[in-house]
Please model this.
Amino acid sequence: MTDTLVNVADRQTLILRAATKVIARRGVRGLRVEELAAEAGVSTALIYYHFKDRAGLLRRTLEFISDRAERYTFDDAPAPGSPRAELEQALLLELQDDPTVRENSTAWGELRASAVFEPELREQLGASTRYWVDSIAELVRRTAPDSATAPPLAIAERLTALVEGLSQRWLSGSITLEYARELLHQAIAAELGEKLRPV
Model:
């Protein structure tokens, strides 16, 4: 029984990893179950068995992307030593030239853009975004309980929105990764009321 559960979980993870790749490459509208099955090396029937329909697959893929981002920005990241360093690290780890991060960020952007046209994605995307914003707001509270320029939640909203925008500009080749990271450094300092260094 345990082997069967592990195999089911492994197959689902395999499919979700493949779905993330296909969405990053083709977008949500370009996601075809046949291509996903080929990418994952499984049958289309198995995809429908595990995820019921396209909406179920998209919901679970969004969860997978969110969980993976949480792992590389919070769980697996080395402890930076101070709340300020932890805040900066959590945001900057979304801007790194790593294949997993690139794929995750690209797929996240595709899902966010598709939510404009696919209302069934909005609620879950909103919940994932709120969780991320709340996590960053908590770090802002711990970093600057009295000296921040605005309420922590407002700072977290601006910083996470900036990360998404900088990520899309970097991934599309509009700016360099180094410049995106420097702009984020500057924004964190400005939001915390710190003295800015020249770019």
Notes: The first helix runs from residue 2 to 26. The chain has a mean pLDDT of 90. DSSP finds nine helices and no strands in the chain.
